[in-house]
Design brief:
This protein is mostly helical. The protein contains 4 helices and no strands.
Length: 81
């Protein structure tokens, strides 16, 4: 899976947990929780959905590595190869 395909899956999951942002461009380098105003429960739901979709679990100790769309894409790309 390419980085663009991974990014598309992440954005799809973001729209699932924050449908009010559907159709908006998700900033790649801004903190996802702050820029989309989602709480930690929604962020956990995002990571759970991505685990189901991409087969990569993000341990709590790695949450700082998946804080932006760019970081999240890189994180999943490295662990899917």
């Amino acid at each position: 899976m390419t980085n663009e395909e991974i990014k598309a899956k992440i954005v799809e999951q973001i729209y699932e947990i924050a449908p009010e942002h559907e159709g908006e461009t998700i900033p790649e380098t801004e903190n996802i929780q702050r820029s989309l105003e989602i709480d930690s429960f929604d962020f956990l739901n995002l990571l759970t959905g991505l685990n189901e979709e991409l087969g990569v679990e993000v341990p709590e100790s790695d949450y700082g590595e998946v804080d932006t769309l760019e970081h999240m894409t890189d994180y999943f790309a490295k662990r899917m190869t």
